[in-house]
Amino acid sequence: MRGALLVAGTTSDAGKSVVTAGICRWLARQGVRVAPFKAQNMSLNSFVTADGAEIGRAQAVQAAACGLRPTADMNPILLKPGSDRRSQVVVMGRPAADVDAMEYGALRDRLRAVAVQALERLRSQYDVVICEGAGSPAEINLRAGDIANMGLAQAAGLPVIVVGDIDRGGVFASMYGTLALLDAADQALVAGFVVNKFRGARELLEPGLDMLRALTGREVYGVLPWLDGLWMDVEDSLALDGRPAQVPAAGGPSLRVAVVRLPRISNFTDMDALAAEPGVIVRFVTSAAELDDADLVVIPGSRATVADLTWLRSAGLARAVRERAARGGPVLGICGGYQMLARTIRDDVESGAGVVEGLGLLPAFVEFAADKRLGRPVGEAYGCRVAGYEIHHGSVTVDWPGHGPAGEGGSGGDGAEPFLDGCRLGAVWGTTWHGALENDDFRRAFLVEVAASAGRAFTPAPGTSFAALREARLDALGDLVERHVDTEGLTRLIRRGAPAGLPLLGPGAGSSRGSA
Predict the structure, then answer these.
(1) pTM (2 decimals)?
(2) Cα–Cα distance, 312 to 277 (Å, whole number)
(3) d(Cα 133, Cα 38) in Å, to the nearest integer?
(4) How many domains does the chain have?
(5) CATH code for the domain in which residue 488 is found
(6) Which residues are catalytic?
(7) From CA 298, how far away is CA 291, in angstroms rounded?
(8) pLDDT tens digit string along 400-456?
(9) Is residue 57 included in any domain, yes or no?
């Protein structure tokens, strides 16, 4: 089998990422050399490849579904919003510019060429490439500059399937409307639909599917049932709204973790490994009152450290965290969260705010630099090997009175101790490393410390493997595709492209933009 396919969606968070991962896993299990691709990704959840390139976290998981190590070609353009109007543009894994929406237009032609070239390289190396769209292909105000949806499909001649989330309602209208808003050339590439997150009696759904087929002249390639426990690495905080609530473990004590949901929260996928640990309940919170019953408070990564620190103060969370730490309540800061725990932050780069007072819970000082640090560090904590990855502009210096810089051993006069690349003071920990909690032995040892500091009778269950759990979830996605999707139809699409002579709907029936 040779070819490619674009998985688009009616909306953001319709299920494009998981459907793409499922198709990748299904193909890989058939012995097909398959790779994932997303031309342009807007996400604050990112990952660092083995050669130091930054890409979307979802594409790293899709690469795992293929049995591959992720590369920059799999996500050549990554947009990281720092505010409502400005984003950092990461091209082939390296920061290239910081622009607003209008300035981004000047980069469009260059970025389109970068994306097409990356896809061509993947197609030359692998039998099949499964591409994921971004948002919706029916964002008609953005179509002229699109490089992730129909613009890519036109440039590369890709057949397209459209995924819709039936759980949120209106799936038939959104599928029909998505197709009808496209022009003739774009409609000709849309081969059909996949319904996602269905729960209920299939016989009640069938009349709607029959009508959708009749109205659009397109196939419904599958209906994927709702499946609990498939929480995967997601792209943005929209998905947090639909995250299933956790319940305490039956017959044993639980450890309650409150994660501060910062306005520009990034790499909150760090919490997935905690949530996978039996008996650990993870909640994302936005108010001081929600910290009251927490055994551990986590301040996660942020794309806008100083702005989110200001929000932390205005929301009353900064005071609540400081009071909690004064009582010995455990607090963990990761990357931007670690920076917020420092005494001072000097930021002439990201926010331009100059010197800003931090929360002062760790004897550390932060200075932002223009160059972003990307790496895959390895270290040790609690006698365990720890591997992680780092993505940050802020450089943290720990004040070790009477001693050398962080990592040279010893603790300062105030009792601070090294912790990974950061430090610990009492029950407050800080590190710039993402992914550290995915290391099973380290995670359990850390939770033992947290439980002791919180005065909780909680002991992590031995044997939980986060890597094995992720593989099981990917296998479950592959099973969904194999059992509930017309895989023969998908195979024909990948090999031959969209069928000829598909009917046109709405305004598209009389218009055509031509190729992108």
Answers:
(1) 0.90
(2) 28
(3) 6
(4) 2
(5) 3.40.50.300
(6) 335, 434
(7) 10
(8) 865 544 444 444 447 899 999 999 999 999 999 999 999 999 999 999 999 999 999
(9) yes
